[in-house]
UniProtKB/TrEMBL annotation:
Belongs to the ABC transporter superfamily. It is a peripheral membrane protein. SMART domains: AAA (SM00382). It comes from Celeribacter arenosi. It holds the Pfam family ABC_tran. Residues 8-259 form the ABC transporter domain. The keyword Secreted does not apply. This is Murein tripeptide/oligopeptide ABC transporter ATP binding protein OppF. Keywords: ATP-binding, Nucleotide-binding, Transport. The keyword Transport applies. The gene is oppF. NCBIfam families: oligo_HPY (TIGR01727).
Length: 330
């Protein structure tokens, strides 16, 4: 078996919660944003990450990129454990692991023109390159994402959202990283522009041998680009499966509910979205058992006390007690 490019083991990230104004003497609490995520990602593949708003998708990718310190857990990149407390190591990692964000215009410096924006990472990470070589690399990268040279002296506000995201991709890829972490890169764009940006990413992935982590709300988008999909809920992984298997036969009750809400492009197939009743638990105070128990239509009594582990079910991995035999009574 080949060594994965990226391995994440039991990663946890929590933030200090603001102190209650009403009960200022109450003990400080923490927002548990990522609660024990593990996965392996082989080089050249795409991992889609889906889940409702607030389930920890952005926190997960930001922690992997070294933008948020993990509270515990391990990340191994290219066979080497990453020490996020070591600044030099984290800086070196950033040249090989780049990110693109949801808001393409806000993520570009408004005071720099496009040439400066795309040259900046080369100045930081590739000081060995001559100014001429940097200029050539920037021109080639911008050309690759469809930005003509006559526009290089223009500023971000002069471009559309789709063009800004293409410039963001050029900036992220100009240093030729191994992995691109994409945090909802197309969510803010019109549907027709979404397809353009996804196609550019796919082409660049093929040409550069890139590995992608692609976060999205929209299962319809993520299933087209991903080899495997990770379904998150309240910071935990509910299901991790090859994209085709997840689409054809979702296993976890939460994944089934998510998929029942995705329209099928076939008039003969009519699906009724499964409505999840029940409240979301608070990330300040997670339940002892299954994270999904308060909304699960299949919950059982033991779901309140036992946190299911991620287990193989066919080609998929599922965290649900329906797939775990009940322990024999003594
Ligand atoms: N810097 C922060 N400080 C405190 N809490 C945070 C911080 N960032 C995120 N959180 C909390 O962590 C949890 C996960 O947030 P995160 O932004 O990772 O979710 P998400 O899945 O990316 O959501 P969305 O789909 O809306 O982007 C949420 O409860 C959020 O309020
Ligand atoms: S463990 Fe129980 S509550 Fe959780 S998803 Fe499975 S059946 Fe539902
Ligand atoms: Mg997010």
């Amino acid at each position: 078996m080949t060594t994965p490019l990226l391995s994440v083991r039991d990663l946890r990230v929590s933030f200090a919660a603001p102190q209650s104004k009403k009960w200022p003497w109450s003990p400080a609490k923490r927002v548990n944003a990522v609660n024990g995520v593990s996965f392996d990602l082989p080089a050249g593949k795409t991992l889609g990450v889906v889940g409702e708003s607030g389930c920890g998708k952005s926190t997960l990718v930001r922690a992997i990129a070294g933008l948020y310190p993990p509270t515990s857990g391990d990340v191994t990149f290219d066979g080497k454990p990453v020490d996020y407390t070591n600044r030099r190591e984290t800086n070196a990692l950033r040249s090989r692991m780049q990110m693109i964000f949801q808001d393409p215009i806000a993520s570009l410096n408004p005071r720099m023109n496009i040439r400066e924006i795309v040259t900046e990472p080369l100045r930081v990470f590739r000081p060995d390159m001559t100014a001429q070589a940097q200029k050539e690399a920037v021109r080639a990268m911008l050309d690759r994402v469809g930005i003509a040279e006559r526009n290089f002296n223009r500023y971000p506000h002069e471009f559309s959202g789709g063009q800004c995201q293409r410039i963001g991709i050029a900036r992220a890829l100009v240093t030729e990283p191994d992995i691109l972490l994409c945090d909802e890169p197309v969510s803010a764009l019109d549907v027709s522009i979404q397809a353009q940006v996804i196609n550019i990413l796919k082409e660049l992935q093929k040409d550069m041998g890139l590995t992608l982590v692609f976060v999205a709300h929209d299962l319809g988008v993520v299933r087209h680009i991903s080899d495997e999909i990770l379904v998150m809920y309240m910071g935990g992984v509910m299901e991790h499966a090859p994209a085709a298997d997840l689409v054809a036969a979702p296993q976890h009750p939460y994944t089934k509910a998510l998929f029942s809400a995705v329209p099928v492009p076939d008039p003969k197939v009519t699906t009724t979205p499964e409505v999840l009743d029940g409240d979301l638990p608070s990330p300040l105070d997670l339940p002892e058992g299954c994270l999904f128990q308060s909304r699960c239509p299949r919950r059982m009594s033991r779901c309140a006390t036992t946190r299911p582990a991620l287990r193989h079910v066919g080609q998929s991995k599922v965290a649900c007690l329906l797939y775990e035999p009940e322990p024999a009574a003594i």
